[in-house]
Amino acid sequence: MGARSFSLFLREALTSIRRNGLMSLASATTVAVSLFILAVFLLTAVNVDNLASTIESGLEVRLYLAADLDSTAVDGLKAQVASLDGVTEVRYVSKAEALATLRQQLGQDSDLLEGIDQMNPLRDSLRVFTKGSAWVDAVAAGAATLIGVEDVGYTHDLAQRILRVITAIRLGGLALIGLMVLATLFVVSNTVRLTIIARSEEITVMRFVGATNWFIRWPFLFEGMFLGLLGAAAAGLAAWQVYIWAVSGIYTNVSFIPVVPVYPLAWRLGFSLLGVGGLIGALGSVLSVRRFLRV
Amino acid sequence: MLQFYDVCKTYPNGTVALNKASATISKGEFVFIVGPSGAGKSTLVRLIYREELPTSGYVFVNGANLSRLKPRAIPYLRRNIGIVFQDYKLLPRQTTHENVAFAMRVIGATPRDIARRVPATLDLVGLSDKADAYPDELSGGEQQRAALARAIVNRPLIVLADEPTGNLDPVTSWGIVQLLLEINRGGTTVVMATHAKTIVDSVRRRVIALDRGCIVRDKQRSDYGDLGGGERAWAQGLSASSSGKP
């Protein structure tokens, strides 16, 4: 396709969008609505996943250390724990720090701790963070065998339950997104097909006067792509605004729920929507034109 | 130019449209295909522009065996064939000029060629003053002239007309037939399927008659020079039939 015919096809596509104004508007709107729903869904999924990860990463294994370890022994132990499979971070917490944290947590009731500074009953410990709930059991078992570790503390049941819920949410979300993508594809390509059936007459005439199949396809392809991009742009803008609004609402009202920041998520979503919209539009057009080109 | 060898066409639903039809049409001929409805006239025409393939037998157009023509080559076959339909098939949202130019654009003609040839062709069919009119602003005869202009603007070797006068009154029909004759005088082969007996009788041209898919008559009528007798008969017929109309 040379530059001249390329611009010709582009112009044809634009002209025909103008000529079939109402139909074009209808398909662009359908694309926009479908992609907007998909976008809202994706944003929700991304945030649920983010929430799950946050909860997961909060799961830690606490290793209580023997009282007689010196700092070199602690460092050696830290290195050993860090080398265990699935461990992302190991943090040393001295018993003084532990007491300070406890005092903070108790707040006004911290006077209960009056006078125990001299004989701190808490133990030095290592906080071990893992890649996820699936690793907790193994890390705890591995750490328990290390010399210098007196005791292992973690909530086995909680870890397992969170693991199950998170897995379910991820799988369910993935399946739903898959369904949504399929539904969007179906709706959009169907709309494009309607646009084309409405113009089967034009295709018939083109065939009778000797237009090659690609000559017939290109303008429709561009047209479908334009409408797809147009719809995707509208969907993206709407989803962006809605997300900004939702994020600020969550920050002010339920700030303990972590949300994925608007940027760069909005950019990524926007470009994906444009890509998907353009692709679906073009593909829908070409596939729909096909049945009129059969001889 | 056109050859049919033992052409049979059976549609998937079992209808036999053509049965062992053989005929040869030379370059520059004007041929009527006649016969009652369902005799296979349209099928014969559709076989020529490769909208259908014969079930058996062969169709040759300009030396090419259509059964062996690759689908990719069909558009190029059709650029040699101008087609006119009973229902005109003009694009309703384009003007007369655009409709004719469409046929040129589709085969990649340059804008300069289009600007030169479309007005000349519209002039030939007598539609110069309707170039900017939309099809629904034209009469039936004018619409068919526009369709004819579209069919010949690319200077095809063959013009196929499938019942071109089917929706037109006798006077208008005659105008269309005269145009086809004029196109034929320029050397273009013309094949016209029709059941308008008066037209066929008035114009002394070869007639291929079909009945239930068989060619029952193929009469070469050599009276090419003078159309006077036929036209007179036509005119008499008209004056008789038009007396009832305003």
Highlighted features:
heterodimer; A: alpha+beta; Alpha-Beta Plaits; 2 domains; 4-stranded antiparallel beta sheet; B: 246 residues; alpha/beta; 6-stranded mixed beta sheet; 10 strands; 24% strand
Question: Reading side by side through the largest sheet of chain B, how are the strands ordered?
Answer: 6-7-8-3-9-10
- Could you tell me the number of beta strands of chain A? 4
How many runs of DSSP E, i.e. beta strands of chain B?
10
**Overall 3D form of chain B:** globular
> Which strands sit side by side, in order, in the main sheet of chain A?
2-3-1-4
Which sheet architecture does the biggest sheet of chain A show? 4 strands, antiparallel
Measured distance between first and last alpha carbons of chain A = 24 Å
Instruction: Indicate the proportion of strand residues of chain A.
Output: 5-15%
Mean pLDDT of chain A: 82
Sheet with the most strands of chain B?
6 strands, mixed
How many independent structural domains of chain A?
2
Helix content of chain B: 25-40%
Q: Helix count of chain A, per DSSP?
A: 9
Write the layout of secondary structure elements.
The complex is a heterodimer of chains A (295) and B (246).
Chain A (H helix, E strand, L loop, with lengths): L2 H17 L1 H38 L1 E6 L5 H12 L4 E7 L1 H12 L18 E6 L2 H12 L4 E5 L2 H42 L2 H9 L4 H41 L8 H32 L2
Antiparallel strand pairs in A: 1-3, 1-4, 2-3
Helix pairs in contact in A: 1-8, 2-6, 2-8, 2-9, 5-6, 6-9, 8-9
Chain B lengths: L1 E9 L5 E10 L4 E5 L6 H8 L7 E6 L2 E2 L8 H5 L2 E5 L10 H11 L4 H14 L15 H13 L5 E5 L7 H16 L3 E5 L3 H6 L3 E6 L2 E6 L8 H15 L4
Parallel strand pairs in B: 3-8, 3-9, 6-7, 7-8
Antiparallel strand pairs in B: 1-2, 1-4, 4-5, 9-10
Helix pairs in contact in B: 3-4, 3-5, 4-5, 5-6
